[in-house]
Specification:
The protein has 208 residues and is α+β, with helices and mostly antiparallel strands. The chain contains 5 helices and 12 strands. The chain binds flavin mononucleotide.
């Protein structure tokens, strides 16, 4: 075994171990709105956290010594839209990760199309196959950097045509999400899928 006591590692080393180990990570492309206009940025410390109501989280690190624009905007307007990043929009997503000053509209810089959201004030991005309009439930400040864990309630779901069937099953093959790996440019596609049904206690598998 290779092993490390976290107490003996600096923050950068722990970051490298985390992002190299927790892979692939889904990517949330998050739009927010503040007094200086809309903002878009990707975050791969991202996941769903519950379904009654539908809730998700992403974590923003103040790695440059001040709150990122996403956090500053959510403090002003506690609403945001989380977009799933597909292979088709990966380059535009990457433009949104540039550390522009507050007030620069990454949606325009990236060449995305902004659409009005239904229930929240920040705009949504037309090109993303899936968008979740969210209201802030909690923003938790953690750690020394610090990180802001943003937890939102999904109040409106958007899908491009043909992704969701009448039984509410989402066809991931039509979404083509990309996942984040480690390093400066590591990503993966969903090109090698398999199925493994859940097992029932006492034998057999859980259907559906
Ligand atoms: C794929 C990808 C994933 C990222 N994940 C995170 C993350 O989980 N947390 C974070 O703080 N920054 C993350 N970043 C960096 C932010 O996107 C970047 O700092 C961005 O400029 C922040 O924008 P803002 O200041 O407009 O909020 C990621 C960047 C990329 C390209």
């Amino acid at each position: 075994m290779t092993e490390f006591d976290a107490a003996a590692l600096d923050a950068q080393t722990q970051y490298k171990l985390l992002i190299g180990s927790i892979t692939p990570r889904p990517i949330a492309l998050v739009t927010t709105l503040g007094s200086k206009g809309p903002n878009a940025a990707p975050f791969s410390f991202f996941n769903g956290v519950g379904s009654d109501p539908a809730m998700l989280m992403f974590a923003v690190g103040d790695t440059s010594g001040h709150a990122k624009d996403t956090v500053a905007n959510i403090r002003e307007i506690p609403e945001f839209v989380v977009h799933i990043v597909s292979d088709a929009i990966k380059e535009k997503m990457n433009v949104c990760a540039i550390e522009y000053p507050l007030g620069v509209n990454e949606i325009e810089e990236a060449g995305f199309t902004a659409l009005a959201s239904k229930k929240v004030r920040p705009p949504r991005i037309a090109e993303s196959p899936i968008a979740f309009e969210c209201r802030l439930l909690q923003m938790i400040e953690l750690g020394r950097v610090p990180y802001h864990v943003v937890i939102g309630e999904v109040v409106y779901f958007h899908y491009h045509e043909g992704i969701v069937d009448e039984r509410f099953h989402v066809d991931v093959g039509r979404v083509n999400p990309i996942g984040r790996l480690a390093g400066r440019g590591g990503y993966t596609r969903i090109t090698d899928r398999f199925e493994m049904p859940r097992l029932k206690l006492g034998g057999g598998v859980i259907e559906g």
